[in-house]
């Protein structure tokens, strides 16, 4: 089953977030990762999302191995804009036209492909007007190196300014039962402008599945840096998981009881219908079985009472969703 995100860009109704295939959440096995990618495409999850910053390029190189034999089966999305800053040893955001072109060339080389289907600005560079960045991205479309443009973590006004320069196929931001700030203005603006929405971390970086022992995360696990995974916040946020579990126990997917992951994804798909825009979540995983599980959400229907219970649970979430507030669109509105 496919869906038109925006700008006539057809993708699978559920996508795959590639970040989890690199060691950001702990060790990763490249052979298993490639097998997981192939399984995703086998079962119809063909919208694959990556970024140049994931694994410092190694994620794109991994996906290149999938594309080598299956390029025509994949809708490929990648991102640019988060760069290393040699002067500080940290990261910075860059959206200057020269960097747009430089990044695209590097991603095309790592991905070993001639064209990127959806090219996102990963984060907005406050030093560069969004019109300049999108203008440079539009030139990549004219050159045949990119087919569609996307933006990540932008505000409603930034999205409006961008669409005045070139059609935008999708906005990508964190959106889930416990991350609903984008519903205030970005989601309605996307619906009004005909832009699809791609929620990243739709399962709360694993927390909403009810399978994550948040207090036992590896020392190098990125989630340790996120406020809502901190000690007291984790304990408080378990209440959200319990509501999701209860709703899952009331539903079935085929012959089996629904899972919390399926409920969380079904909630997002329902939100798309509520707001009147195409929504394509991109859950990430390292295991093929999780892809099959996630697909069950596409046919799951939640009752009004179940939706109300999930909405109420979302209101009690504790802690920020990001350790870098200025990179979160709602913090700039």
Provide a concise account of the structure shown.
By secondary structure, the protein is an alpha/beta fold. Helix content is 37%, strand content 16%.
Strand order of the largest sheet: 3-4-5-8-9-10-11
Question: C-alpha Rg, in Å?
Answer: 19 Å
Largest sheet: 7 strands, parallel
Tally of individual helices = 10
User: How helix-rich are the residues, as a percent range?
Assistant: 25-40%
Average of per-residue pLDDT values? 91
**Spatial shape:** globular
Short descriptors:
seven-stranded parallel β-sheet, alpha/beta, 10 helices, 37% helix, 333 residues, two-stranded antiparallel sheet
Overview of this structure, please?
- The strands form four sheets. Strands 3-4-5-8-9-10-11 form a seven-stranded parallel β-sheet. Strands 1-2 form a two-stranded antiparallel ribbon. A two-stranded antiparallel sheet has the order 6-7.
- The mean pLDDT is 91.
- The two termini are 35 Å apart.
- β3, α1 and β4 (47-49) form a beta-alpha-beta unit.
- The relative contact order is 0.14.
- It is of the alpha/beta class and 333 residues long.
- The chain contains ten helices and 13 strands.
- The protein has helices spanning 30-42, 58-70, 97-111, 130-142, 156-163, 186-193, 231-249, 260-275, 288-295, 304-314; strands spanning 2-4, 10-12, 15-17, 47-49, 75-80, 82-85, 90-93, 116-121, 146-152, 170-174, 196-200, 252-253, 256-257.
């Amino acid at each position: 089953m496919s869906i038109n995100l925006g700008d006539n860009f057809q993708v699978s109704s559920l996508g795959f977030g590639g970040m989890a295939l690199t060691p950001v959440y702990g060790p990763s096995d490249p052979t298993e990762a490639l097998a997981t990618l192939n399984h995703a495409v086998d079962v119809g999850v063909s919208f694959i999302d990556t970024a140049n910053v994931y694994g410092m390029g190694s994620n794109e190189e991994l996906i290149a191995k999938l594309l080598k034999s299956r390029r025509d089966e994949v809708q490929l999305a990648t991102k640019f804009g988060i760069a290393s800053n040699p002067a500080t040893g940290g990261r910075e955001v860059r959206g200057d036209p020269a960097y747009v072109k430089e990044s695209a060339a590097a991603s095309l080389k790592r991905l070993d492909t001639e064209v990127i289907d959806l090219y996102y600005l990963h984060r907005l560079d406050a030093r560069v007007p969004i019109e300049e960045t999108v203008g440079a991205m539009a030139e990549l479309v004219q050159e045949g190196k990119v087919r569609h443009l996307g933006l990540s973590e932008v505000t409603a006004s930034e999205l409006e300014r961008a669409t005045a320069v070139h059609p935008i196929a999708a906005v990508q931001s964190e959106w889930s039962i416990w991350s609903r700030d984008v519903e205030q203005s970005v989601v309605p603006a996307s619906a009004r402008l005909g832009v699809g929405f791609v929620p990243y971390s739709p399962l709360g970086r694993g927390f909403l599945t009810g399978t994550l022992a948040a207090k036992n995360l590896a020392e190098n696990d990125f989630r340790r840096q996120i406020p809502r995974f901190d000690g007291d916040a984790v304990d408080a946020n378990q209440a959200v998981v319990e509501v999701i579990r209860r709703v899952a126990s009331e539903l079935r997917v085929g012959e089996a009881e629904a899972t919390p992951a399926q409920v969380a994804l079904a909630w997002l798909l329902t939100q798309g219908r509520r707001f009147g825009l195409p929504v394509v979540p991109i859950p990430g995983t390292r295991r093929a079985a999780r892809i099959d599980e996630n697909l069950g959400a596409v046919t799951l229907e939640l009752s009004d009472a179940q939706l109300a219970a999930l909405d109420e649970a979302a209101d009690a979430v504790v802690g920020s969703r990001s350790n870098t507030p200025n990179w979160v669109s709602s913090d700039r509105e």
